[in-house]
Amino acid sequence: MPGTSKLDISTLESRDPFKQFNCWFLEAKQNKNIKNPNAACLATCGLDGHPSCRMIQVGDFSDKGFLFFTNYDSKKAKELSQNKQCSLCFYWDHLDRQIVLKGRAEKIKEHESMDYFSRCPVAQQIKSLSSVQGKIIKDKQELVDRQQRLAKEFETTKKMPVPETYCGYLFIPDEFDFWQGNQDDIDDRLRFRKKHEHEDQELVTPGEGFWVIERLGA
Ligand SMILES: Cc1cc2nc3c(=O)[nH]c(=O)nc-3n(C[C@H](O)[C@H](O)[C@H](O)COP(=O)(O)O)c2cc1C
Fold first, then answer.
1. φ, ψ at 102 (rounded to 5°)
2. Where is the Pyridoxamine 5'-phosphate oxidase N-terminal domain positioned along the sequence (predicted)?
3. Average pLDDT, stretch 100-116?
């Protein structure tokens, strides 16, 4: 029915953006048409001022933030070492939903990354270890050889070498922008952001804790 919002402050599952995210994420996970609900686009910007983006796999998330893993020699890691401010964008086509998160990424402790790595399936560990992300290579064969060597090594030692460049980041959001597409009707958009000091409370709806909620044109 035109004018009926699918996303409205009055009918939110939660006024805590992490809990609201979790509700949408669970729906995305339960939707059989969504192959990879954990995939998100990460945008970073280094000192050259030129934004770059790429898909990543978001591992765990909690009210502390969103975990992701990458290679410390990669372009994204270099840019994050110059500028922690970054954005994440989830898009779930079959639900007509997008969530854009603005925040910063903090490198997690090395032992935490290693702990996560040790819990990954062996095939994934081998893939990470043989990755030379972003480096120019002569041909694919050198990666295939490296992968085979690592698989053989594992077969005999049952131990995987500790990857020097594997590292994890915790993305800590300070803004969540929920977008709901509505076929044949106006799309909905709600932004959760942290309350500013001395701001006019009349224009915003209080969320949980220090969060406020605003409706935006979609
Ligand atoms: C669905 C999907 C998930 C991906 N997940 C990751 C990931 O979790 N970590 C990662 O480093 N690269 C991941 N990649 C590869 C990146 O998109 C990218 O090509 C790579 O990290 C190099 O990016 P950079 O050179 O901009 O740093 C993924 C790609 C796709 C399509």
1. -110, 140
2. 27-144
3. 95
Residue that wins the pLDDT comparison between 122 and 18: 18
- Ligand 1 centroid–CA 189 distance in Å is 28
Tokens of 124: 């994934």
Exposure on the CB side of residue 162, measured as CA atoms within 13 A: 8
155-164 tens-digit pLDDT: 888 778 878 8
Domain boundaries, the chain: 9-117+164-215
Q: How far apart are the first and last CA of the chain?
A: 18
For ligand 1, pick from 34, 57, 83, 124 the residue to mutate: most ligand atoms within 8 Å of CB: 57
**Quick one: fold of 9-117+164-215?**
Pnp Oxidase; Chain A (2.30.110)
Is there an atom of ligand 1 within 6 Å of 131 CB? no
pLDDT tens digits, one per residue of 46-72: 999 999 999 999 999 999 999 999 999
In whole angstroms, give the CA distance from residue 204 to residue 212. Answer: 6
Instruction: Tell me the best of 38, 55, 73 to mutate to test the pocket of ligand 1, counting ligand atoms within 8 Å of each CB and taking the most.
Output: 55
